[in-house]
Every structure is written in C-alpha cells, then in structure tokens.
Amino acid sequence: MVTNPSIDLNAPPPDGPHYLLAVTDMAERCPVVAHSAIYNDSGIKLVEKGARIDARLYDRLVQHRLQDGIDGHLSAENAVDLHAIAALARQRCQEPLMQRMVQAVGGEARLLAPLESLPLPAPMAFKLTVMREQQPALLAHSVGVMLVALYLGLQSGLDVPGCTSLAAAALLHDIGVLHMDPIWRDPAHKVAGAGRKHLVAHPVTAMLLVRAQPDYPPAVAQAVLEHHERMDGTGYPRGLEGGRISAMGQVLLLAEVVAAFFDKYADHPAQRLSLTLRLNHRKFPAPLVALVLPLLADASTTGADPQTMQHEAERHASVLAQAFARWAQLRAPLAASMPEAGAFIDARLAALQKALTEAGAHPRQLADMLPLLQGDGQGLAELALVGGEALWQLQALVNAVQGRWPRLAERASAGDAAVADWCDACGQWLAGV
C-alpha cells in the first residue's frame, strides 16, 4: 500500500477561497440568505442573521477562518432537494445505458426506491445547490454515478438501507471538487508532479464534509474517500489494494468510471468502456465488472470471430501508427514554415492520441493488449470498432486540412509540401484499409 503522508484525515471540514467564491458568485444570481449569524474562530461576527449574501462579502469571509462551515448558516432560493434529485435521476434514466439498468433491475421504481429515504441535511442540500448553479454537469455526473451505484448495489443483493447509504455516497462523492481551483476544470490544464496534490485532495475534502454530518453512517464517508482507489493499489488518495477498500468503496470506484465514460464520450462510450474494463481488469472488482459488461454488449460485436477481429484491429493500428510517426518526422524540422496548418494538425492528432490512450487502443499499446484479448471475439471487436472510429477521425482531419488550405497542394514551400505529402500518405493508407 502506498499511503500519502501529507493527507490529514482528521482535519476539520474546509471552506476555502474557491468554494467561498463559488458561493458568493452564485448569490449574485440566486438569492442566498444567512439564516444565522456567521462568526470567525475568534468569535467576531462577520455576517448578521438575515443578511443577503453577495460578492461584496467575499473579501470579508475569505480573510477569516470561520467558526464552523458556512453551509450550515446559509439558505438559497429554490435549493436542491430530494424531489429535484429524483427528477434529474428520472431524466437520466431515459439514457441508453440507464435504460438497460432499469430493465435489468425490474423497473425505474425499484432502481429509485432507495432515494425515498435518502438523508439530505441542509448543509449538503446547499452544497448541491452550489454545484447545480456553478457546475451543472458535475451534478448530472453525480446523479449518474448514483444510478450506476444503485444498479450495482441492487444486483449484488444489497438491502434497501445499504442502497440508501450507497446512493448518498455516490451523490456526494464529488462535492470536494467545489473546493478546487477552477483551473482544474480547464481541459488544457496539465496535471503533473506536485500539482497532483490538488487533485488528490478532493476525495479527502469530500470525506471530511460528509463525515461532519451525523445523518450519514461512517461507511458513507469512507466510500466517498475511496472513490478514486483501484484494486491493484494504483488509485488515490491512499493507494489501497483489494480488500482494504470497503465494499461500498468498490461499488463507488467502478460506478464513477462507468458514469464518466458515458458523460465524457459521445462516440462509442460503451465499447470504449468495455475495452477499458477488460484491459484493466486488475484495477476493478471483478464481480461488479461482471454486472456491467452485459450492459455494454453491442449486437454488432457479439459473436465476432476473434481471428478476423484481431486482423482488423492490427490493420487499423498500423495505419494510425504510420500517420502519427510520419507527422512526427515532418513536423519537428519544419515547424516554423507551417505554423497554421501544422498547429491545427498537432492539436487534432494530440486529441486523437489521447482518446485512443484513454480507451486502451493506441497503437503503442497493441503489443500488450492483444495477448490479453486472445480468443475474446467481443473484446477484439470493440478494439477494432474504436480503431475504425479513429481512422474516420483521421480521414476527417485530412479532409479538413485540404479544405482549409487548398493551396498546400501547390507545394510552394517546404512546409506546404510536408503537409500535403502527409495528407496524401494518409489518404493512401486509409484507402488500403
């Protein structure tokens, strides 16, 4: 086990400047009132009872350590409640993956029944209101994780009280994100080195906030803390392995990944996720994965011939590898002479390679992947499907470059000639698939 020594699991629940900014910013659009006075830790009153919160209070609040969490002092107009959560859950139940889960458990009513007794104390309701107003996609994701977790819990034989606790953990698992610097939501922001401590902190923050609420049993806070752990010990924040992760935490870590794939990818999310779960089977709890894979099966991949699918996957990977390698060879020495078209291709290829890597389908991963999928017709078919989608994106990139810069074909400069040659080579490779 790799334990992060900088993690303080006994710290008080934080407010922090980023969360206070989110609250005061929300208050400019959604009326927020202090239903009790707010004091700093020295007993000095900062905000009167009944005061309307606005952006002008941010500087006063952020300069002090508050006596207790700000959420317990504030109420918002049209706050998130159980009815709002249930309505969003019913809305998400109309999505293809959720429809399959609903059918598998015996109907929407059974899937959502644990929500009827879900505790939602006022501070957590306020926190979810901030999430809805400031990061609506995060609330939608949290509800999606909750639905997947409930499916896994019900299919595993968990009783209603257990499912209710599981629903609470899933719904609240990402409230720590509200306390992070908004820069971490920028896709262009690279998380590396020491900067990862901010990313690692959000499950700890969420755990501390949940643990401070007596309505939730300790298992809820523990599961929230563990939602980014992995069975092989490669997760965070504590690098727990296998049985050291609680049963509820194991459900949550898988539910988070399942929901994230469908929230993130518009193209073939089921196939991407199925492939990822198969290729990273040591990271996820096998009995729970076995409950997810049937939901991801595609009629177009079921019963596929392994040998045929392996050949197709290899051909796709070969074309992609040649395209990536050729561009790398041309781009480096000629960067200055093809800035506009070069930057366009750089960005698109980088996005494509990132997507392939996340799906476990990048050409450089193939040598390790194919032995794991030997004889697995569906897994190989999914790999071929992702590769085929990548080839389509490569062709679309070539078409876009040729359409935007038609004069490249004249090869008036070394840079123009390099781009034109790369496009022509890609066209020939693609035509051979």
From TrEMBL:
Which residue range or ranges hold the HD-GYP domain?
112-312
GO MF annotation, one? phosphoric diester hydrolase activity
The protein's matches in SUPFAM superfamilies, at most eight in alphabetical order, are given as: HD-domain/PDEase-like
Give the InterPro entries listed for this entry: HD/PDEase_dom, HD_GYP_dom
Q: What is the official name of this protein in its record?
A: HD domain-containing protein
Q: Which organism is it from?
A: Paenacidovorax caeni
